[in-house]
Design brief:
Layout (H helix, E strand, L loop, with lengths): L18 H5 L13 E5 L7 E7 L2 E6 L4 E4 L7 E2 L8 E7 L2 E6 L4 E5 L5 E3 L7 E6 L5 E5 L4 E4 L7 E2 L16 E6 L5 E5 L4 E4 L7 E4 L5 E6 L7 E5 L4 E4 L7 E2 L8 E7 L2 E6 L2 E5 L7 E2 L3 H4 L3 E12 L6 E10 L4 E4 L2
Antiparallel strand pairs: 1-28, 2-3, 3-4, 4-5, 6-7, 7-8, 8-9, 10-11, 11-12, 12-13, 14-15, 15-16, 16-17, 18-19, 19-20, 20-21, 22-23, 23-24, 24-25, 26-27, 27-28
């Protein structure tokens, strides 16, 4: 297994919100020989972090009771942001010099550059579970009971996207939506209950089904290296892979029944976080290994992202190292180490 330091809902409507609270009081375990993560920060027992976004040396982790932590050194150190709300923050994204966070009761927070955070009146009341945005300002948020919201101005103003769910299932069920991707060209991918992945090629005006099944999709992401490879993960060990940017998906055979909550990939490496589980691959998903670190198998991690930091300097200039980070139980932030 390569090291990542390298140069350069139904009842599960809450694998994300309910189950994690049941295990969030677990204590961190001393580092072992089979260490998979290095704990960098831990909060009080009832803290939880649900989402993580990173871009270069900057990053933001958000969670329970408005908890926000940021880094400006690629993830090495984290500083708590004065709370802006007591509501849970469930999704975070950054693009084009803008940041966007969403959460309970239709909450959205925005920030331009290094300016102040602002609370946006979205007009929504739904629990917003995730959000993604591209550098052109197109932002899409997804949430409970099939809700999809859209902004064309980096989150400053919003509109609900109408979906006739009778077109997607015989009973007209409104599936909870957990995952979202917004590509540079305006293509939108959303995923949720019933293994549903939907694609829009017109910026969210219309959607079509590109995958469906039984297990819920909890997270999805395209490779950080800019390739067309990507993964979706979810309920009972669900792992899907795309090799064409999300147009088609295939299920991978993985030796776990754990609920998988987050995924990151790039340059053939894949890291999947979950409830008492972390999966790793160094061959683009052909095979996976499971962490045995007690900091993983007795806890949970959800948000996952990679940051870049200057690790050294010399005559030839700074050496940049990329590291993958995960966030989750007890407000913990950890670096994936093997």
């Amino acid at each position: 297994m390569k090291n990542f330091a390298k140069k350069s809902r139904s009842a599960l409507f809450s694998g994300i919100a309910i189950f994690v609270c049941l295990v969030s009081s677990a204590a961190a375990i001393a580092q072992e020989a089979d260490q998979a993560v290095e704990i960098l920060r831990m909060g009080i027992p009832h803290d939880s972090l649900y989402a993580l976004e990173m871009s270069g040396s900057k990053g933001l982790a958000v969670g329970h009771f408005g908890l926000m932590l940021e880094t400006t050194d690629g993830g090495s150190t984290w500083t708590e942001v004065p709370p802006l709300t007591s509501l849970a923050l469930l999704g975070a994204t950054r693009a084009g010099g803008h940041q966007l966070v969403v959460g309970q009761q239709g909450l959205a927070l925005t920030r331009d550059g290094d300016g102040d955070w602002k609370t946006v009146d979205t007009g929504f009341t739904q629990r917003l579970l995730n959000v993604a945005m591209n550098a052109s300002g197109l932002a899409v948020t997804v949430g409970e009971f099939g809700f999809i919201g859209r902004s064309r101005d980096f989150g400053a103003t919003w509109e609900a996207v109408p979906i006739d769910w009778n077109d997607f299932n015989d009973e007209g069920y409104e599936p909870h939506m957990y995952g979202v991707i917004v590509k540079a060209d305006g293509t939108v991918l959303v995923g949720g209950e019933f293994g549903l992945i939907m694609r829009s090629t017109d910026g969210g005006d219309t959607f079509e089904t590109v995958a469906s099944g039984e297990q819920s999709v909890f997270d999805m992401a395209l490779a950080a290296d800019g390739s067309n490879t990507g993964y979706a993960v979810g309920q009972e060990g669900l792992v899907l892979k795309t090799s064409d940017g999300g147009d088609t998906w295939e299920r991978l055979t993985v030796d776990t029944n754990s609920n998988l909550l987050g995924v990151w990939s790039g340059n053939g490496e894949v890291v999947i976080s979950g409830i008492r589980q972390m999966l790793r691959s160094s061959n683009d998903g052909a095979t996976f290994s499971k962490a045995t670190d007690l900091n993983v198998v007795r806890t949970w991690f959800q948000g996952i992202a990679a940051g870049v930091a200057d690790s050294a300097s010399g005559a030839s200039g700074a050496i940049q190292e990329q590291s993958v980070y995960v966030v989750g139980f007890r407000g913990t932030i950890a670096r994936v180490v093997q």
